[in-house]
Amino acid sequence: MPHNDLPGRPFVARRDADLFLEDVRLADLAATHGTPLFAYSKASMLDALAAYQRGFAGRNARIHYAMKANSSLAVLQVFARAGCGFDIVSIGELRRVVAAGGDPATVIFSGVGKTRAEMREALSAGIGCFNVESTAELEVLHEVASAMGLRAPVSIRVNPNVDPQTHPYISTGLKGNKFGVAHEETVDAYRRAAALSGLRVVGIDCHIGSQITQESPYLDAMDKVLDLVAAIEAAGVPLHHIDFGGGLGIDYRGDTPPAADALWAKLLAKLDARGYGDRQLMIEPGRSLVGNAGVCVTEVLYLKPGEQKNFCIVDAAMNDLPRPAMYEAFHAIEPLRAVADDAGAARDAAVFDVVGPICESGDWIGRDRALGGVRAGDLLAVLSAGAYCMSMASNYNTRGRAAEVLVDGGQSHLVRERETPEDTFRHERLLPGA
Ligand code: LLP
Fold first, then answer.
1. pTM confidence score
2. 166 C-alpha vs ligand 1 centroid, how far in Å?
3. Which of 1, 106, 142, 236 gives 85 a disulfide partner, CB atoms 3.0 to 4.6 angstroms apart?
């Protein structure tokens, strides 16, 4: 079996014919909770985190889980209990952190469009740092904090103009992207921040993109950030921490991103060589902590053979798994039960487009997939579905969002109930009159 058939191994593995997540048979979860169903392996998340923890052993460092990747409360609990802080991009995410028992002091607030109300609430909660993305935002944050008699802790997000060599929708550190303050304008922005009484400059940060599978963009970005640290400090503004963002890719389809500990050994060697090894370090990984910890289990509703295409219509759709429709992303798809009989083998040659019930041709989950002797009623697992799936799920076509289960060894916990159609219109109001 090629290496990429089961991304996430050994946490997703076949035992005899059946697919397991840790020690739980996925078919058993589907029988109990129905489909579509997301299941996450706690051990896989902690294993991914451990690679970063090894990379930073002995350093003054904090890992901020970028919760946009998967903001389910139980997932946040796992990372909060493991000592992580959080990277957030909305006040809603801060409220989730608090609901999951996380400490706002360990939270950094990124994003290009923070509102005054969000700033006020984050300041009242005692947030750790605002990653400010423009000079206009610096002025507004200063006003908001001053009016509250506070000084907002700030770091400026630098746009280093480095190509992360990833999908254009998920690169963020290029000149043409909306994120961060341009490299050339950064020193002036820091001078301004230091002069504003409502702000307290604490650090610098940069994040260049997502699903990065090469180490060179990180090394280039670090050089550029460290050049800036030197220039900013020469301008009289000391920086306490350096935040290198997230973005490390995962194996979806034989991708070979560097391991977090190996990557950080290289980055830390560079940091030390340039004399900044003593700074507080922060990072914001999302996908690499949760992506391969999750699977989405879906039932085959119909097979629809055709002249040009065979369709395998399943009960999960683009509202549950938006990445293929949005980025033409690849997710491996595995039958929950491998078919061993002769009839199955004979049908092996057929390839299917795996599609959902939503009324759009863009509603596809996988194209040209060999699914063995798949039949209606079979269960399939869409792999690498722990990141940017449930957190981007929608109610399109008035489909309730899927249920979620957290697997821990041989145990499983339902951590999100399946939404009913009524849940999806609970906040709507009818017009008055007859
Ligand atoms: N920090 C900042 C400021 C970010 O914007 C992001 C992701 C992260 C950290 C975490 O990046 P990660 O380690 O997860 O790559 N929906 C897209 C991915 C969007 C990423 C947005 N920013 C997808 O499904 O591929």
1. 0.96
2. 12
3. 106
Which residues lie closer than 8 Å to 221 by C-beta, 6 or more apart? 160, 162, 173, 206, 208, 244
Q: What spacing in Å lies between the alpha carbon of 17 and ligand 1's midpoint?
A: 35
Ligand 1 site, residue 110, Cβ cutoff 6 A = yes
CB contact set of 304 (below 8 Å; sequence gap of 6+): 310, 311, 312, 313
Expressed in angstroms, the distance from the first to the final Cα of the chain is 63
Name which of 405, 393, 400 is nearest 419 in CA terms: 400
Output the pLDDT for position 4.
41
**Is 133 touching ligand 1 by the criterion CB < 6 Å?**
no
Tokens of 155: 């770091």
Cβ of 243 less than 6 Å from ligand 1: no
Residue 379 has pLDDT above 60, yes or no: yes
The yes-or-no answer on residue 359 being catalytic is yes
pLDDT at 343: 54
pLDDT at 5 over 70: no
For residue 373, the CA-to-ligand 1 centroid distance in Å is 37
Contacts of 93 (CB under 8 A, 6+ apart): 67, 68, 71, 86
Other CB atoms within a 10 A radius of the CB of residue 372 amount to 17
Q: Which atom of ligand 1 is nearest to the CA of 323?
A: 24
